[in-house]
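so my prof wants the structure for this chain in the C-alpha cells format not the other one, which i didnt know existed until like an hour ago. anyway here's the sequence
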Amino acid sequence: MSLNNNERFSGPPPDRSVLEVTEVLRFSVCRPRRDIAVMLVVGEIDLGTAPSFRDQLRRLFGDGAAMVVLDLSPVTFLGAAGLRVLVDAQTQAEKTRRRMVLITEARCVDRALEVTGLAPSFHRVRSLDAALADSSAGYEETA
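here's what i got, hopefully its the right format
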C-alpha cells in the first residue's frame, strides 16, 4: 500500500512521542547608559534560530547605540549560521563606527570562535562589568 505525502506526514506514529520545542532562543535588551545597548541571548543559535537572531541585531543596531554588547553567556549552542550572523554584525558595527563587544562565558561560544579562527575578529569579555569598564576606557562615542 502506498501512502501519499499527506498521509505519511499527518502525525507521529502511535508508538512515538512528540517533542514540542518552544522558545529555543530568547532575547532581552536593556540600556544601562544612553550610548550602550545590551542584548542578552539565551538558548541555541543554529540554522533555525539564526534569522531571528539577525532580526534582533538589526533592531538593536537601528537604535543608534555607540556600543552594542551581546551577552552570549547563556547560549548553549552556536552553529555556523550563528557565527555568520556575528560576523555580519561585526562588519555592520565597523561600517557604522560602533563598537560591538561579546560577553562569552559559554564554552560553546568561545570554542566555536576559536576553532573557526574568528576569535581575533571580536572583542570578548567575561562580564557586563568588564564591557562597561571598556566603554569608559577612552573609546569615542559616535551617537
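also thought this was worth mentioning. Residues 80-95 form the longest helix (16 residues).
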